[in-house]
Amino acid sequence: MAKSEKINAYACSGTARTRPLAVALHKFFSDQEVRNGGAFMNRDEIKGKAEKAKGYIKEEAGEALNDPELEAEGRAERAAGKLREGFGKAKRKVGEAVDDLADKIEDESDK
C-alpha cells in the first residue's frame, strides 16, 4: 500500500477519531464552526488563518534562504489568507444580523 493510501485509509477509519491529532484535524477540516473567545469561527475564517500562517512561514523561509520567489509566494498567500478570513468574518456577521432580526420579528409577533 502506498504511503498516501495509508494516510487516506487511516483518516477515513473510525479509529482516527480516537487519536488527539486526528481529532484536531477532523475538527479543523469539518464544516462545523469552532468556538473562539465567545464567537464562532466559520470554515472560511479558519482556512484563512491557516493560509496566512502558511504564507508567513514561506515568506520567512524565502528570506532565510535568500529566495525572492518563495518570499513573494509567501506574501501572496498571506494576502489571500487575510482576504478569506475577512470574507469569513463578514459572512458570520451577516448571519448573526439575520438571526438577530429573526429574533426581533419573532418577539414582535408574540406581543
Compute the separation of the termini in Å: 66 Å
Separate helix tally? 4
Helicity range of the residues?
over 70%
Q: Strand order of the main beta sheet, please?
A: 1-2
Q: How many domains make up the 3D coordinates?
A: 2
> Poorly predicted ranges (pLDDT <50, ≥5 residues)?
3-11
The outline comes out as: elongated
Structural Rg:
20 Å
Biggest beta sheet attributes: 2 strands, antiparallel
Number of strands: 2
The SSE string, one letter per element, is HHEEHH
Structural class: mainly alpha
Please give the structural blueprint.
Elements: H1 3-12, H2 20-29, E1 34-36, E2 39-41, H3 43-64, H4 68-110
Antiparallel strand pairs: 1-2
Please give a quick description of this structure.
By secondary structure, the chain is mostly helical. The chain has helices at 3-12, 20-29, 43-64, 68-110; strands at residues 34-36, 39-41. Helix 3 packs antiparallel against helix 4.
Structure description:
By secondary structure, the protein is mostly helical. It contains four helices and two strands, in the order ααββαα. Strands 1-2 form a two-stranded antiparallel ribbon. A hairpin with a 2-residue loop joins strand 1 and strand 2 (39-41). Helix 3 runs antiparallel to helix 4 (68-110). The longest helix has 43 residues, at 68-110. The protein starts with a helix and ends with a helix. The relative contact order is 0.10.
